[in-house]
Amino acid sequence: MSSSTPVLQVQDLKVYFPGRRGVFGRTTGVVKAVDGISFEVGRGETVGLVGESGCGKTTTGRTILRLQVPTAGRVFFEGRDLGLLKGGELRRLRRNIQMIFQDPYGSLNPRMKIGDVIGESLRAHRLAEGAVLADRVRALLEVVGLDPAHGNRYPHEFSGGQRQRVGIARALATSPTFIVCDEPVSSLDVSIQAQIVNLLDDLQSQFGLTYLLIAHDLSMVRHLCNRVIVMYLGRIVEMADKGDLYSEPLHPYTAALLSAAPIPDPKVERRRVAVVLEGEMPSPANPPGGCRFRTRCPLAIDICRDKDPELLLRRGRHLVACHRVDEAGPGTGLPDMKSESQLPRSPQEPLAGERQSGKPTPPVPKEGPSNVIST
Q1: Residue 327: per-residue pLDDT
Q2: In the prediction, which pLDDT does 265 show?
Q3: How many CA atoms lie less than 13 Å away from 55 in the CB half-sphere?
Q4: What pLDDT is recorded for position 133?
Q5: pLDDT at 100
Q6: pLDDT of 186-214, one tens digit each?
């Protein structure tokens, strides 16, 4: 359960990039990767950030970590404005904010041994050295289900799932409270994905972590997240508790995403009306006027072309940006999403490949290593 005090607050965040063309790289406009989004993440909560490729999810995550400088807006972590921090003050705060990268192949230095990769942040923040550092690295490897003796191996000697476990161990090294998970399983085999998802879940329970989960896989989001944020072309179009969003999506784009999610059971018949979006996502360098989704929306009318809808509270904690949300229902083109058999599996049911092969996920120690990596 999350507390009332948010760990992360994002206020009207904008990230624009100059659009360049030609041999001489002339600036011809701006690419609005993130265009005025606001949300909060409570302590101990897992918030999912979903949407098509190019909607601004990863840019949002990188900007929160100050890997990308925002064009406008503010990001607060535990009440402190990250935009005002510099030098040593920012470096100290970064111990509490870490990232698990999408690519387990490209995110590890191939010339460094695994032990050095994990221990690098401990040395950089002067948290450990010598024998103490070696003990912490071994403990971290054990926590993520790897053999502590493998710290002397290089990344190419590990499989993709093992490399992602190394990336998770590196993120845990400084004992952070908040981790941005940037599509941590998208490049892995399905059976390995389930193991990594279970590992992230176990680590959150063990260390009290807070996650911002950037993902395409809606079944994984439903398994891990408390709330879900749906982005389209740099904007938030819907934000709600997991149960509300999956049972009754209010935005047609969210309905389309859920409609496209496969059901991992050949015996379950899909009874929901399929929503097929026509065309490609417009370029963020030249977004449509009014509602940005109107060029692909089956419910678009004149007001959608003339006015950009605001993100407003509709039901409980359910926020949606749509002019026709109050009219949506049978006959409008918005599918009925209430049938539970049409949704991805519930958290109590195993994901595809999860704990079905007779080889359980390596256990996460409940005692011992936890007091080794704490600071």
Answers
A1: 67
A2: 59
A3: 21
A4: 94
A5: 94
A6: 878 888 888 999 999 999 999 999 999 99
- Residue ranges of the chain with pLDDT lower than 50? 1-3, 329-375
Cβ partners under 8 Å of residue 274, min gap 6: 259, 335
As a three-state string, the secondary structure of the chain is: CCCCCEEEEEEEEEEEEEEEECCCCEEEEEEEEEEEEEEEEECCCEEEEECCCCCCHHHHHHHHCCCCCCCEEEEEECCEEHHHCCHHHHHHHHHHEEEECCCCCCCCCCCCCHHHHHHHHHHHCCCCCHHHHHHHHHHHHHHCCCCHHHHHCCHHHCCHHHHHHHHHHHHHCCCCCEEEEECCCCCCCHHHHHHHHHHHHHHHHHHCCEEEEEECCHHHHHHHCCEEEEEECCEEEEEEEHHHHHHCCCCHHHHHHHHHCCCCCCCCCCCCCCCCCCCCCCCCCCCCCCCCCHHHCCCCCHHHHHCCCCCEEEECCEEECCCCCCCCCCCCCCCCCCCHHHCCCCCCCCCCCCCCCCCCCCCCCCCCHHHHHCC
pTM score: 0.82
Report the pLDDT value the prediction gives residue 226, as an integer from 0 to 100: 94
Q: Which of 62, 54, 355, 343 is nearest to 221 (CA)?
A: 343
